[in-house]
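anyone else get weird line breaks when pasting these?? whatever heres mine. first is seq + tokens for prot A
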Amino acid sequence: MKPHKRIGLVAHDARKKDMVDWLNASKGYLSPHKLWATGTTGRSIAENTGLNVTPLKSGPLGGDAQLGAMICEGELDALIFFSDPLAAMPHDVDVKALIRLSTLYNIIMACNRTSADFIVRSPLFSLEYEPQQFNAADYLARDVGV
């Protein structure tokens, strides 16, 4: 993982303002990094922060899946996902898959403002870092007892 991170940003509707506020407060930490965001989150970021962000599709229309594919392909180093824990999401399976992939591929993940603050303000965040990689070959070769 290089010093300049590749970061995916997602915020559910009730958390978009919190995401924009956090990004504005964290610009100095985030401006050297490359940012991608799902549809309306990306639009809110572009319109309200001045940060350079690459927009993807809206989450329910495939943006979550696009970020998931980027994680699988080693194209993202971090996911900042401000989720709404009190609302049912029609694309909840996509949300869970994105969190599962972030965990599986051992990338940086924050699900709220406090964890995002601790991550981007950590001295490790702007350094080169070598995370332990998921070994798909070992997983596929496992004994499943059949």
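and prot B, same format (seq, then tokens)
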Amino acid sequence: MLLNLIHNPQQLVAYITALLAAITVHEHAHAWMANRLGDPTAKDMGRLSFNPMAHLDLMGTIFLLLVGFGWGKPVPINPNRLKNPIIDNIKISLAGPFSNLIFAIIVGLFIKFIPISQNTFDFFVIIITLNLVLMVFNLLPIPPLDGSHVMELFLPKETYETYERFGMMFLILILVFSNYFPIIDIIINFTINLFFNTLFGIGMR
């Protein structure tokens, strides 16, 4: 994805700015929810912040720039500070993706009802798209993605811990072979098209 923008500095700057905004909103939501549920660990480490540098994960950012999927730096959680560790951890995990959805809806409603220039419209479309990509990708039930924590409700503890250990390997294999089995891309494209069709009556990808 980054390679497609490298020869267009304006679009590259817009893409990186939108990327930083999406990741920051996502990770801030994790930290906010953890603090709200009684665990200030992330807050104490400076993660309850809208500073993008507090949330960037090197590998996750590289993946997002190059292939369109990615993640931010994991927010530290201390389960001993949570009243209901499994349920609260799921709430904390899902706060990130759903914050991206809320962000996308707010921006979408803004450009639907407020007259703006074409360049501004295009920039906001990038913001919406990246937030939807982050939302869908991170909802996949594969460790270390946010959606994987839902599996704690259905798997025995030992099985889930084994699943966590091999999750990254499984995720990398899915991404490596995504050209042959583009399941993630299909889900993301469907979500983006559904969003823009609902809001504007048009498909985007």
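btw re prot B: The CA atoms of residues 62 and 131 lie 16 Å apart. The chain has one domain: 2-200.
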